[in-house]
Amino acid sequence: METETQRKIDETVRRILEESDMDQVTESKIRKQASQELGLDLNKPPFKAFVKQVVESFLDEQQRKHEEAEEAEEDEGKQEREVDENGDIVICRLSHKRKVTVQEFKGKPLVSLREFFTKEGKELPTSKGISLTEEQWSVFKKNVPAIEKAIQKMESRIN
Questions:
Q1: Mean pLDDT, all residues of the chain
Q2: What are phi and psi of 95, to 5 degrees?
């Protein structure tokens, strides 16, 4: 296979992968779309093997980027996290009265979204808020995309 042909296939396959929903795409679909765009039958053995190699290389690169981003995020979080008077880790402030913290209760971590008030210079939690166990947090986190979609739908109805 010519170097120029390999370059064109590589560029086309990578572009298709970048534009694709990785939960829906298959190597076969990628080959089919690239075949149509390039006017080549990429199902033939030498092409098929090359496309497989490009797809695997792309996926490895994406995985590596994802891991590097997670590591950078963890490092950043370790350096900048605020700890409040109770020893709870302050993840973020939602407003001057509300914040998200991670705390330990009876030896188990809890994610708390809570309202606070100030008394004698100390920030104290109110009963207004919610604390989620690890399991509850996982369920919530998994459903954030559905919440975002619902918000977008609601906003489009309002506008």
A1: 89
A2: -160, -175
Place of tokens 């880790």: 89
**Residue pLDDT, tens place only, 98-145:** 999 999 989 999 999 999 998 888 888 899 999 999 999 999 999 999
Q: Find out whether 116 and 99 touch, Cβ atoms under 8 Å.
A: yes
- Tell me which amino acid residue 24 is: Q
* Amino acid of residue 30: I
Are both 141 and 110 inside the same structural domain? yes
With beta carbons less than 8 A apart as the criterion, state whether 40 and 9 touch.
Answer: yes
CA-to-CA distance for 77 and 83, rounded, in angstroms? Answer: 12
Q: Based on the domain organization, do 45 and 86 belong to the same domain? A: no
Model-wide pTM > 0.85: no
If one counts the domains in the chain, the total is 2
CA distance 123 to 146: 33
109/154 same-domain check? yes
Residue 42 has phi, psi (to 5 degrees) of: -80, 5
Question: Any idea what the Cα angle at residue 56 is, between residues 55 and 57, rounded to 5°?
Answer: 90
